[in-house]
């Protein structure tokens, strides 16, 4: 099951308590579903939980049944439709539409005056026309509608609620979307999906940890490469001194350092400093190695 499907399943566990909120949620469903016009309403979903919720939602909101609905046991897409003129008229009356006119949809803000109704409206819009990407991959939540004015007015509603979406178009749909993880978390929590919001938070935290580990590993690998390269240069310089017969002529401390470096090419500077007899500081060892490098280049 996809993350979006899990999120919709969680949203569908919210109870249908108030009729005004049921109407607001149904309003969001209708404005963001596949079709809502004077000719009829058609809702298509792949979510089994949403398919189970829809009949109860429309009964609570409008006291009516769908003219057509796919049985919940059906696998694949669930289709719900209303074509009956009297039912469409009853729905339009709730939202202040004149069913005798062509519907160029706008959001009737008067229906959404209460905060709990706006929240229900957002939930319905997401259930019918929303999606959210698996946060382990990327952060993206969107609401898609075929109604231009509805998309613009939804953006205004979201801004009033403290969210600041972006807008785009995709084929014949108008998209309102978020890409900030914090905004997605807050939106999901607000519409009734706190577990999904927590999943976004956890994914973000895991990415931060993995990113930190990767940066540390990359840094350690780079440092190791530099240490290996430096040790190789030191050994080559010592071999040149040996070829010239200069190694035995070096001062005892430099000669001892050269011999330890040749014997232990894999050791770090700290380990090499400890291997000397007597041990020396890392700074002292650095000084000796630089001197060997200079002599080896001469």
Q: For this entry, what is the oligomeric state of its chains?
A: single chain
- The CATH architecture of the largest domain comes to Roll
Strands of the largest sheet, in order across it? Answer: 1-2-4-3
Q: Portion of residues in helices?
A: 55-70%
The third-level CATH topology of the largest domain is Endonuclease I-creI
Query: So what's the overall shape?
Result: rod-shaped
Explain this structure:
It is built from eleven helices and eight strands. The radius of gyration is 35 Å and the shape is rod-shaped. The chain folds into two domains: 3-192, Endonuclease I-creI (Roll), CATH 3.10.28; 224-297, no CATH class. It starts with a helix and ends with a helix. It is α+β, with helices and mostly antiparallel strands and 298 residues long. It has helices at residues 3-11, 19-32, 48-62, 85-94, 115-129, 148-160, 181-191, 194-243, 252-263, 269-275, 282-297, and strands spanning 35-37, 40-45, 68-69, 78-82, 130-132, 141-145, 166-170, 173-178. The strands form two sheets. The chain has a four-stranded antiparallel beta sheet with strand order 1-2-4-3. It has a four-stranded antiparallel beta sheet with strand order 5-6-8-7.
